[in-house]
Design a protein that fits this description.
Order of helices and strands: EEEEEEHHHHHH
Distance between the termini: 14 Å
Oligomer: single chain
Shape: elongated
Helix content: 40-55%
Strand content: 5-15%
Number of helices: 6
Radius of gyration: 32 Å
Amino acid sequence: MDLFQPDEIPSQDNELTLICSCPKCSAKIELALTQIAEDATSHDCPACKTRFVLTRELFARRANRKAGEINCALCGGQLDHSQHCPSCKALYPDYFAAELPDAAKKRARKNRDLFGSLKNFSFEWRSSSAASTDYKPVLMDSEPWQETAGWKKKNIVMTASAVVIIVLIALGVSFYKHAKAKQEYAASYVLALYGIKMGTDLGLKVCGKLSADWTARSASGQSAPPSISVDDENHLNTIKAKTDTYVQKLNNPPKAFAESNEKLLKLNGLFTTLHAAALKPSGTVTNFVSLTQKTENDFKTVAAEFKKDLPAELSDELKIAKAKYKGLSDF
């Protein structure tokens, strides 16, 4: 049985690399992520000796980039049209793009001009005709509203536009936070399930050994229950502690995952019952065997229900975990 491994940290020897294409000759260039500055850095193509720039940009600007020509800023893998990185599964990752220096400067100038024009934007009402630039109407004292009518109309339009923009930004931020919360929940959910499955399998194995030992003792006239071995006890407690850590992260699940969360907690309850029985067997050997068998059957029943109507996000995460963790392969 493989050990519980989700908390293991990758070795520092596995340095993350980024493979980009030269913007002039399209040669493949491999760079270590540690060699790339936070904002932008210059490099020479080893094939054509052309100097190019690697620029880091936010996920929101990737609409202007072709898929396959940009790389995740977290792991260096190529990005496609998905909202997450296919390699490291990061949601809305920043990315690096290789450009010729002139193209990078042009893009930077365009962004600077855009924000500069917004900064200097004025709310004054001005005519587009040069001939009417100096015209100022003479107003009657009885009509003071005419002096500010144009400005008020302009102000109302700009205020409404600002409100719409703020609402759209708020909706975007809310959507991003909701999607990120669901992604983080799905990751903790699968790791909690992994611990429950591993702990249950080990608990059944330990209870099986205790039942056999207890039966042999009873045949020789010894009624006291046997004790679990130190290695088995340590192994069971390690799995239980790590599983509890992930289960605690599942409090207040997203609404779409509420039903699946309840099913997982049922499995965890059965695992907890089996864990307690394995650590401190009590009663008679007949009752102990019955408890073990009932817990195993209940676990299989709940597990079968668990797999029904599993939300797509959890189902996808479970498929990845099955391929990664041996203990989940037969779940």
